[in-house]
User: Which sequence fits this backbone?
């Protein structure tokens, strides 16, 4: 099991409404360093959710944030959480305690067979007694809560 | 003396004309890794040129470029050069061979006293026989050459 504290800063684009285009630019700060991520619009699939994600490690969070701000990106939202990660063979379980939202569990399976992945996820979900699936992102949940 | 090959990719901003605002976003690729830099407008000072520069190391150039492109930045220009760097105490001499432009020498002094810096630079300039000062950036020189 590994634990980390993550602070995610989401940025507004200088000329595009990321809320409408369903994109995101996120700077994540952890004890191990920082990374910059672009998330593309969600693609609807039969079972799970899918979206393009491109991530690059950055040397330090402060400089990355200053570059983004000089280029017209504005800090829009911050999502802070503590994450405990359990890796059980092909199954990864992430338990997040999100500031202002509470506790969430994310299940991820690394496998090349979608059918095998679906059945593994279903087994794990039932075993852990997880009955309230959540499709929204933490950012969306926080915005909902704020009454946006 | 250290030598490196540098490929600089300059990006156009999604909604701002960097040519007019005198800013730049540059992704530099070298053998040692990649870095992203924001350059602010040049500030006129009596002697030397000054501008804000913020740089952050990035884990890999390709991912950084893809994130920029997804966010609407477009590759605008590439400046490639070989740079030999000589460090002589407080004086740094950089000899650049720039693709399409030729050879240039840059002198830099690290000191807290502007007067001391100016006299050191002048000594080095005279000693090296450098008589054709160039204020423009390589990018500007390349654009001039292309006839814009």
Assistant:
């Amino acid at each position: 099991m590994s634990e980390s504290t993550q602070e995610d800063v989401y940025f507004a684009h200088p000329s595009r409404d990321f809320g409408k285009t369903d994109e995101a630019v996120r700077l994540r700060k952890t004890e191990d360093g920082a990374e910059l991520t672009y998330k593309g619009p969600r693609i609807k699939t039969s079972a799970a959710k899918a979206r393009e994600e491109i991530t690059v490690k950055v040397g330090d969070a402060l400089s990355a944030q200053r570059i983004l701000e000089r280029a017209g990106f504005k800090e829009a939202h911050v999502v802070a959480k503590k994450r405990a990660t359990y890796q059980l063979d092909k199954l990864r379980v992430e338990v997040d305690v999100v500031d202002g939202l509470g506790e969430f569990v994310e299940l991820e399976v690394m496998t090349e067979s979608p059918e095998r992945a679906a059945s593994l996820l279903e087994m794990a979900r039932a075993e852990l007694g997880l009955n309230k699936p959540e499709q929204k992102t933490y950012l969306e949940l926080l915005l909902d809560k704020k009454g946006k």
